[in-house]
Amino acid sequence: MNILILGSGGREHAFAKKLSESNKITKLFVAPGNAGTSAVATNIAINPTNFNQVKEVVLQNDITMVVVGPEAPLVEGIHDFFLADSELKNIAVIGPKKDGALLEGSKDFSKQFMIKHGIPTARYESFTSETLQKGQAFLETLSPPYVLKADGLAGGKGVLILTDLGQAKSELKEMLSNQKFGDASATVVIEEFLKGIELSVFVLTDGKNYKILPSAKDYKRIGEGDAGLNTGGMGAISPVPFATDDFLQKVEDLVVKPTINGLQKDGIDYRGFIFIGLMNDNGNPSVVEYNVRMGDPETEVVLPRIESDLVDLFEGVANRTLDKKSYKVTSQTATTVMLVAGGYPEAYEKGKEITGFDLAEDSIVFHAGTTLKDGKVVSNGGRVMAITSFGDSIQEALDKSYKSIDKISFEGMNYRKDIGFDLV
Ligand code: AMP
Ligand code: GLY
What residue stretches are annotated with the ATP-grasp domain (predicted)? Predict the structure, then answer.
């Protein structure tokens, strides 16, 4: 079969590599892709949120399955667009429809969903500009730190965690009355701060059956020791050592099952990934957020650990036969370290030639922000490459990733030298 992957990051390169290894693949396409995906698939330079362009590509290339990487096309309804089109309605889309994508597209919706279905999460209330005063009064009932979340998609920047009550009140006003995050902050969720240590669990579901994919921990801050600005993610580790069997059983019973059952009860036919951001507080899980896609760079450690055929699993998702599909994961640890452009996550330059990545024999090099220019691989984004390695321990895998990185260079290259510092 011919498959189209939408997106252009390290996550999509990891999908492309894994899908290309299946003997069920005839042709693989990535739109728009990057320099790495062009080595295992055909890149097509279209914008994944331009659904008419996606349609053209699908029909021209006899594509029978579309795998959606990022959240934007899902939240904007690409799956619904396919179902409503007579020429596209039988093409499998891996990713939820608009109603399911609201789990990520609206924090208020996802909190309501969790409360309704008894899924452990922080106590919260939602406010709009009309209820600003009530919101400020609600803040007074909480103890610091204060957690303010823009309801809608805000490119990963819509969550503020503040220690000062006065500042929390004024930021609430900025979000609600002065549209700090545009329409995304027309509604703001205020919630209790959760203590504990964070990790992510990924679920692949056909709406009824599910497979729990490997857990992962991501390092979001730019600086060592988890200091400085938030990024898309500077590295990741899978599995997470503190996610013990006992903890993961609790996650399945208290979070995964009620989530899948809740979707069914609410009439939401969900086929795709659910990324569950969790806090582990003394062995008890609490949901921080849902995303309706895989994480980046978590995908770069989760997918390489899956030994089963991913096309086969995706067919199970599309045909609602996921329970019949075999699913195996290696016990080895995978680590990834992200190479980023100098200045990222603030202003940075693109177009820097990248050398030495072909010498990283003990690692898998996933391209993120890269492109081909005059036959050379050059940087094309803030997060440039994710260097993934396997080991019998976190340390062994990390040593391989860092040894590979010693061979790679581009002007301004930066990376965290302490990925996994809290785990080893
Ligand atoms: P989100 O976009 O919901 O993932 O929030 C971004 C980050 O803020 C999360 O990854 C957490 O580190 C942190 N965060 C969000 N909500 C809470 C909370 N209720 N308590 C503590 N930390 C939180
Ligand atoms: N690495 C976090 C995310 O993909 O949202």
Answer: 111-319
Q: Which atom from ligand 1 is nearest to the alpha carbon of 192?
A: 19
CATH superfamily of the 334-410 domain: Phosphoribosylglycinamide synthetase, C-terminal domain (3.90.600.10)
CATH number for the region 2-95 comes to 3.40.50.20
**Alpha-carbon span 401 to 24, nearest angstrom:** 31
For domain 123-192, the question of CATH label 3.30.360.10 is answered with no
- Which tokens hold the place of 295? 């994480």
Amino acid at 393: S
The ranges assigned to domains in the chain are 2-95, 123-192, 197-324, 334-410
Ligand 1 pocket, mutate which of 107, 281, 289, 298 (most atoms under 8 A from CB) = 289
Where the chain has pLDDT below 50, the residues are none
The rounded Å distance from CA 294 to ligand 2 centre is 8
Q: What is the atom index within ligand 2 of the atom nearest the CA of 291?
A: 5
Atom of ligand 1 nearest to the CA of 277: 4
Question: What ranges in 63-176 are assigned the alpha helix state H?
Answer: 71-75, 78-83, 98-105, 107-116, 132-141, 165-176
Pocket test for ligand 2, best of 68, 199, 298, 340 (most atoms within 8 A of CB): 298
pLDDT in tens, 150-168: 999 998 889 999 999 999 9
Q: 200 with 185: CB under 8 angstroms? A: no
- DSSP type of residue 329: B
Ligand 1: nearest atom to the Cα of 107: 3
pTM here is: 0.97
Dig out the tokens for 93 from the structure: 């889309």
CA of 149 to the centre of ligand 1 (A): 9
Residue 155: the pLDDT is 84
Its CATH class, for the domain covering 197-324, is: alpha beta
